[in-house]
């Protein structure tokens, strides 16, 4: 059975946190069983973890040496793992795969957070009188729980994250095989090669996006969110609304755009719109410096992380969309509910947000595999770094005492004239596009790379302007890509 990620991704890091991966040189029943049990308990709702056999682990949890598993020991290790996991109570079995990397074989056991936790296993295998322990993970270590940890585990037993719950109103046929195949191909999963020939229910079980007995297998909410074309049918208002208020909140002009579909599609579509139509570049030339100064009204990296965080942490059982309001001097991103109560309002003001437990363990897992969000508890740092590198004001993160909403405000960078770039940039953008039209009217065969060089702007800026001019009916391309020409219409 295949895994929803690749051995290459696990060994290189950056997508799955090292704390969620345990490397073992050889099969060690005692230590490995504890690790699998701890991942299944998933006390912090991180999404479980992976046990990789055939790798020497360094003290910091990263791989030190890839030794692999001898081919003649593969079957023995797998049988031993099966027998050891039968000792876990309630019944739990990880998903395993024999993976090849750089000419060596590795055994990978994926242990997602279980739905019938807490799980326990013997403290000492082979001893009938051995006490059973509800092992948990703390950072990169497997430990015995404290009394408080045990209490948490039992509380979690009645609180499976919404995204990991079975949706009894949906059918397995509501999941799209093409969407699943596209995802598996993008993340480099070995399941991609098997998906077309596998039984569909087995494929969904392998990805942990469906559960239940064979006669009543149902999709999980996370499966519907990512692999249904209409997730809003089961989770109303699963969408991103972008509302533009170019004259401010008191103005008469309102432009609304709604993005629906699979979660990663709507996120990418909304980000693409913001990048193409809201984010603008300002170029300031100084007489005493050869190179021009370039910055943006909003750095894309900050907007991307802020919106991705909203998608990650939204409560999909609430009937509220994610709303992005674009005002003359700021962008506001509103989602529901608010921040976890472990994050105080005072800490938010100081950009400190370390959440003990995550609302959507599975949504975060898929977004990370698709490189749409950073590691856990790194979002604020990513946003701050992008804004400060651009010379933008610091953001504002807000929630209310009742934790009904979470609001992120990204302020526009002031231009060289001292006003928000959104105002100064509008005139600059309009003039740049007029200059582009004048140039293309004289040089209809010019490539966009040449246009970028002549106007002293980036190629991405030219691409964005061309798309806008086409939509406005002011420019069109005739003929083929290689032999065609530009036609200025207005």
Automatic annotation (TrEMBL):
The keyword Protease does not apply. It comes from Enorma phocaeensis. It comes from the Bacteria. GO terms for molecular function: DNA-binding transcription factor activity. It holds the Pfam family SLFN_AlbA_2. SUPFAM superfamilies: Winged helix' DNA-binding domain. Keywords: Transcription, Transcription regulation. This is DNA binding domain-containing protein. Residues 429-484 form the HTH deoR-type domain.
